[in-house]
Amino acid sequence: MSYVMVDVESDGPIPGDYSMICFGAVLVETGLARTFYGQLKPISEKWIPDALAVSGFSREETQQFDKPVQTMQAFAEWLKAESDGKPMFISDNNGFDWQFINWYFHHFLGGNPFGFSSTNLGSLYKGMVQDTFKNFKHLRKTRHTHRPVDDAKGNAEALLTMKTEMGLKIRL
Fold it and tell me: What InterPro entries is this protein classified in (predicted)?
């Protein structure tokens, strides 16, 4: 099993009504060299300007992105090529990121290579330190930029630190 850290940017709060604009993924391993980045053409006429602004793209730019089926197919192929066995989805906000990735995989490809579950990095950290008020974000080395590969790398760095310096028992 391989852990894949994922980060999503969208133009609204839920998939279907709104669109996933781009996402990044990194295989969690030393060096964090294996990454994926996808940009997706909007699937809906609905969008929230403030939500889209987080991604740094204009609506006009997003209209030129790849069709979602192409991007999701490329991501599925990347997961198959890069993962050792079934990939495990992890993100710092899996309630948000997972809903988009899961919906897009099912809607456009008929199934999700990650299966039916995901892991929340923040909850994992809170359990390790036994304090629900603590936050893992100080463990990131890569600056959080809202560019999805950067953000996924920063979160993957935190997970690697949790393993190497804090004793998390995890196979990476």
Answer: RNaseH-like_sf (IPR012337), RNaseH_sf (IPR036397)
